[in-house]
Design goal:
By secondary structure, this protein is of the alpha+beta class. β1, α2 and β2 form a beta-alpha-beta unit. The protein is globular, with a radius of gyration of 14 Å. The model has no long low-confidence stretch (mean pLDDT about 90).
Amino acid sequence: KTLNSNTFGQGQTFDKNFVAITSDAAQWLVDHRIRVVGIDGPSIQLFHDDTCRTHEILLADNVIILEGLNLKHVEKGSYKLLCLPLNIPQSEGTPVRAVLSKE
């Protein structure tokens, strides 16, 4: 959950300065064997990062990326995450229904 949650769904103009992670942070996630990473912004990668390294690093290690999560009303704590993807053959990504339940 980042500052992106403060404006989620408010219909404002697109903010190119949304919170995301750098390629160094992506490498840290891979090095620490994180298998799923999610963010409450439109992309896991910074808008002004033309290299696409963040996505490449994560996807090369088969890290599942969840983008655009609505975490606005989620309190701090431990949760079980269930992601139900649409079955779209030959797709590199798909929308999911992401559901959180308290542990």
